[in-house]
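Troubleshooting entry. The earlier prediction with manganese (II) ion gave an output that would not parse, so I re-checked the input for stray whitespace and re-submitted. Clean input:
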Amino acid sequence: MITTVQQHIQQEMSEGRGTFGWLMSGITLATKMIEAKIRAAGLTDIYGALSSENVQGEQQQKLDVFANQALIHCLGTRDSVAALVSEEDEEPVVFDRSLDTGKYIIVFDPLDGSSNIDVNVNVGTIFSVHRRLTWGALTESVLQPGTSQVAAGYVLYGPSTVLVYTTGRGVHAFTLDPTIGAFVLTQENMKMPERGKYYSVNEANVASWPEGYQQYLVGLRNEGFGARYIGSLVADFHRTLLKGGVFLYPPNKVKAEGKLRLLYEANPLALIAEQAGGMATNGADRVLEVRPEAIHQRTPFMVGSRYEMETLGRALRA
Ligand code: AHG
Ligand code: MN
Ligand code: MN
């Protein structure tokens, strides 16, 4: 028989599972709306860019805006949500809810891999859930380190649509069954292989990386590693989770903090990686321990199998 996300949460969580289950149903509903839009993209006017830019100064794709609106709409109706932080909005969306009602902060990248939408390549949604702190200003609740995440996950819109999540009790995957419109459990307690055979990085930037990264890649090539780079973080990460290997977005001379965002790209994937036995760093420290200072701050992000990540650590300390 099938197990849905809701059932899994009821089994997994001891306390707060009703509220959290209702919260997660907001995410699954929004991602099913996004999936439907993506599947019909060529048939409806959802491809292409808008004239607007997001807070990152990046041109917004129509699907970025739709995905963002879907998540804000579906999650905004959950009383347990105190605030939403989106890659697409400069400021958090704050709801007027009391401390004992508005218990959660949700941070998300509504559509990851936007540059791949118009060429029909995998894109994703990434989310991270924090508890609202019962003290201090709301910004303190928003700027918590990755170790404080209550849950994290992503949806990968590919040949099939897969939701992967963790509540700190292992990593589990669900596949959307379009015949019943539900995410159905397909993998439990996923473990990242100790070692893979691919590295995943945009090698166009190689000349501008710190020397240690360049030497590291020479070493991997000498060990026979191949290269795979899709350009959608969620897709490159999902392959690394299933097959092992290493994904890198290093710092470079132009982007000293790299390109990827700490709160809604690095932290959720770092939690999943560690829960599956992998590692995630910013080149020096465990990503999850970085104390955020701004909601859209960027971080160098390296994530992958134990062997590749320990080798990277040695290369960067050399
Ligand atoms: P987003 O579409 O949410 O802005 O994310 C795009 C990110 C990430 O998905 C991917 O790993 C990275 O951009 C690719 O960047 P480069 O094109 O610089 O390699
Ligand atoms: Mn992204
Ligand atoms: Mn995005």
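This one parsed fine. Residues 109, 112, 233, 265 surround manganese (II) ion (ligand 2) (CB under 6 Å).
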